[in-house]
Amino acid sequence: MIILLSAAIAPGLALFSYFYLRNQMATEPRKTLFQTFLYGALLTFPILFLQYVLKEEGIFYSVYFQDVVFTSVVEEFFKWFVLLIAIYNHIEFDDPYDGILYGASVSLGFATVENILYLLSFGLDTAFMRALLPVSSHALFGVVMGYYYGRAKFSQKARTKEMIALALFAPIVLHMLYNAILSFKGYWIYLMVPFMLFLWWFGLRKVKLAHHHLVQHLHMQKKL
User: Fold this and answer.
1) What's the count of helices (H) and strands (E) in the chain, helices before strands?
2) For residue 170, which of 195, 140, 200 has the smallest C-alpha distance?
3) Measured between alpha carbons, how far is 34 from 36 in angstroms, rounded to an integer?
4) Hey, which end of the chain has fewer CB within 10 Å, N or C?
């Protein structure tokens, strides 16, 4: 059991440490980040329950719609909503790069609990593949979401609503593409490899841009 839990938790911890250590300009309070992680972890249970109930009730006319559209929308919406109500106006959200950390944190909280439940059901044989795909993809969806939250809070007020909307819709689109690729039975891996390379490129580009906006933000603060 200890080995299984370690295998389930390690990918999320490693990915979060990577994004945390990329922030060399400021140190975000670990307590707030841990709370955000817990929010994401707690989200797992109502989301899985909702998905189970709707599936059992036969609400969905199509398995494809259920797995690709509904799953992507409900998971990213709840993460987006938690960040909006609990973190966006938090005093500790005080620079553009913080969005990256909080987005990654809430997503990895969700992904880690989901990973634990999955490995308990299917065993350690799936641990490596899940670290490469579901856990890392959730982290990158969170990075993209957090980037736009950072832009919303620290860019011109005229663009705030636009950026908050992008914080929701950009991860949903990416998540839907990811789930759509998984639906291609037999040859999904040939589509997933280039998609994951693109997702990492896109996510790391957002990290780089957030760091650039952080430098500008700190420079403006010094002027003031």
Assistant:
1) 9, 0
2) 140
3) 5
4) C
